[in-house]
Known about the structure:
By secondary structure, this protein is an alpha+beta fold. It contains eight helices and eleven strands. It has helices at 19-29, 64-72, 105-112, 124-133, 146-157, 197-211, 224-228, 236-255; strands at 36-38, 55-59, 76-77, 86-88, 93-96, 117-120, 161-168, 171-180, 184-192, 216-220, 232-234. The termini are far apart.
Amino acid sequence: MGLFVYPRFKGFQKIYLCNFELKLLLKKDSAHKPLFFLTNELYFPSVEDANSDGLLAVGGDLSPERLLLAYKSGIFPWFNEDSLMLWWSPNPRMVLFPDRIKISKSMRKVLTNRQFTLTKNTCFEKIIDQCALVKREGQEGTWITEEMKMAYIKLHEIGVAKSYEVWQKGQLVGGLYGIDLGHVFCGESMFSTVSNASKFAFIKLAEELKQKKYKLIDCQLHTKHLESLGAEEIPRTEFIEILKRKQEIAKDSRSTH
Length: 257
């Protein structure tokens, strides 16, 4: 679902609230791209088969195995309670290379005046709850359904989904969560209840990932807010190549033992 993306896609100002709206979307692109309906088989089609809006497949489940396969393949789920389960891989892809983070003068003051403190993975469930509750401009309701929430909690329990929490005077005032692939961090959502709290979390995330030599933060889709922080759009092919690098290294390592 996209780190800081509200609303999601240009031309689609809300989540597809019912199957009728989905049919309209399919009709729009049916002459160009087929839509894949997933079964219980652990499989995704090539991201090159996504339609012009990035929609790739419908159906499947939110098991840890399928979610991990999705993120490693450059795919993410996004739907609401009244929609079918939808899987996306937009082109281009909005990303932040950690060493290109932009920090304004005002944010540099925030970083140094110690008004916020940061923790990691101490209250993952609270972070995802807050992300679901915060109202977004141009977005009706939330895509963080109860089913989605439980799926990411399972990923957190196995050490894959992680949270960054921002505190002020002992109160949780901001944070973010996402999927950590070891070389790419896939941002999912963030929130803040006071000014600059979510920016603080994002900058701290980028600084840590730069130190750890991560390739990028996946932000999924363009927003002016992300662009102001240094994020940029890259072709999906380039994004997929970066995703595959660590997987190929891991395969080569196993083959030598």
